Amino acid sequence: MKKVFLLSIITVFTLVFISCSNDDDGAVSNATEEEVVGTWNLTALEATDGRSDTTIEGTTIPATFKAVGKDFQTIVTFSEDPQVVTSEGSYTTVLSTTIAGENDTQEQEGEDFFASEKWRLDGSTLYFGSGEEEIGYTIVELNDSKMSLRYELNETVESFFGTSTVSATYNMTLSK
User: Fold this and answer.
1) What angle is formed at CA 78 by the lines to CA 75 and CA 79, rounded to 5 degrees?
2) What pTM was estimated for this model as a whole?
3) Which of 2, 57, 84, 112 has the fewest beta carbons under 10 Å from its own?
């Protein structure tokens, strides 16, 4: 049963790239498209303050999680015309969970998380995707050599395990 919940948490971790939410606290106020365009190296990726409450047949099971990326070999490219973001390469995510007092740590290989997605800049928010599939990241730092992005996840997810309410703060750092 522990494995079922762990798989649920891992699935939720990947939802950061298909959900939409943002938080403007601490955001950069003067971001420009010219600063975003170019080739960047993924140098940090983490999820903090992760919490999941999964309800199965009327029983709620709380879990906490954190994730930290390592072994980054990922290049992210923001093109200008058209505005498309792509990534290539890989990284490893170390996912630590606590479910019902049991701690577990697993590593998962990550790959090209931007697969020719559209991007757009609106104030201090960098959006990826289009329409209902659009994800908004708050730009918390942007200069000639570094871009730091934050995403606040707060979702309810239905799966064959049950219903999970998930929250976490995701941070991504890109460097030139």
Assistant:
1) 125
2) 0.80
3) 57
Rounded CA-CA distance 32/42 in Å is 20
Whether the CB-CB separation of 97 and 67 falls below 8 Å is answered with no
What distances in angstroms separate CA 88 from CA 16, 35, 62, one per listed residue?
Answer: 18, 21, 35
Amino acid at 79: S
Structural tokens at position 68: 């930290």
Q: How far apart are CA 149 and CA 24, in angstroms?
A: 11
**Run of H or E residues at 111:** none
CB 104 within 8 A of CB 62: no
pLDDT in tens, 122-156: 999 999 987 778 889 999 999 999 999 999 999 99
